[in-house]
Amino acid sequence: MPGLESEAGAVLDELTAEMETRICEVPAAMHGWRIDRALAQLIPEFSRSYLQQLMADGAVVMRGTALRKPSARIAVGDRLAVELRPTQQAQAFVAQAMALDVVFEDADLLVIQKPAGLVVHPAAGHWTGTLLNGLLAHHAGAAALPRAGIVHRLDKDTSGLMLVGKSRQAVEALVRAIAAREVNRQYLALAHGRWQGAAEKGVDQPIGRDVHNRLRMAVVRADTGIGKTAQTTIRLLDGSDQACLVACKLHTGRTHQIRVHMAWLGHPLVGDALYGGRPLWGMGRQALHAARLSLRHPITGEPLAFQSAPPPDLLAAIDGSGLRYNEPGLGSGFLE
Q: What is the pLDDT of residues 290-311, one digit of tens each?
């Protein structure tokens, strides 16, 4: 997985760099260049994204003024003082001890229950306190793996089961298995509206970035070229005039896939304000829980199956909606 490895490796390299201030004089050949382009050549051992982050942090100074805009133009003879220091992004790839709810663990595989509110990957606004930080503290081998062994993700406010590889061989095998749809991932969701039509529906609608709101994803026309294939099977477990409780099986793993497909069906998830849901029955986050996970062990091939009961807030919302969730009967309600 060269893309994942290079991303994590580049940031880790930048983290280990010694603190120093580099003085660069702009040569005639770079007169009029964007400053980020010039810095990428003047200090080639660092990535352009790292240098742009330094600018955003005020670490690039010319004539006593911090230059924060990568598009700023420079002139021949300008002297740039660049303080090479770990950025927030680089500091994100450090170990932070946290209590992980471990469902299964051996030398190659880790299955955890992620609580709602835990961010999986470091990103803007969440550079620390993520699952990746916790995995780096959990076992020494995580630092040598792409994204500390994370092979799929759950949104911050989605709870439930997650797979993590603990060896390079396992990570690569898990990625192949997910791509080949050999990992069965099923979710429990509480959504708005009375369910109409067949109790089981297959949604095969491509998903891409919403052109009107870059924070959202959306179902897009296949001929636009901006979407990716997305397939979800959805089964009604219980329903009323106000709400429906459904099991969702992912066949692909697009960003916000269940949330987008449910909203497209006219059933946004309770609490999911981004896609038209409203907070009800005490549920202020999207009512989505990764409840079942089955696969073959990435090294031994042994069949594995895991089940996770919904967290208290989701159970309370289901109860408040008047719908029924009976854990002993979960298997018959979910999809095989």
A: 999 999 999 999 999 999 999 9
